[in-house]
Specification:
The chain has one domain: GIY-YIG endonuclease, CATH 3.40.1440. The model has no long low-confidence stretch (mean pLDDT about 95). It has about 90 residues and is an alpha+beta fold. It contains four helices and three strands, in the order ββαβααα. Helix content is about 45%, strand content about 25%. Strands 2-1-3 form a three-stranded antiparallel beta sheet.
Length: about 90
């Protein structure tokens, strides 16, 4: 069975966020961290802070597109609210 992952990355250096989708999450993170994506290269290194798995590629693409909208960005930030809260208060 093939899965399609919609993922949220966080830049370790400056807290930038990036949303994407892939079939191989580990490989894709390695590509981001090796500078193979021009939009994420300046903000390396990255870490995965959230992902969802879909069985259908069109569902994953639609979800990625939605999460990149203003409404979707608010939703995903609420989804990982405790992560951001803990991170902020652990410094």
């Amino acid at each position: 069975m093939k899965y399609y992952y919609v993922y949220l990355l966080e830049s370790i250096e400056n807290d930038n966020l990036y949303i994407g989708y892939t079939t191989d999450l580990v490989k894709r993170l390695r590509e981001h961290n090796n500078g193979l994506n021009t939009s994420t290269k300046p903000y390396r290194p990255w870490r995965v802070i959230y992902y969802e798995a879909c069985l259908n590629e069109d569902d994953a693409k639609r979800r990625e597109k939605y999460l990149k909208t203003n409404q979707g960005a608010r939703l995903i930030k609420r989804r990982v609210k405790e992560y951001f809260y803990f991170k902020k208060n652990s410094n």
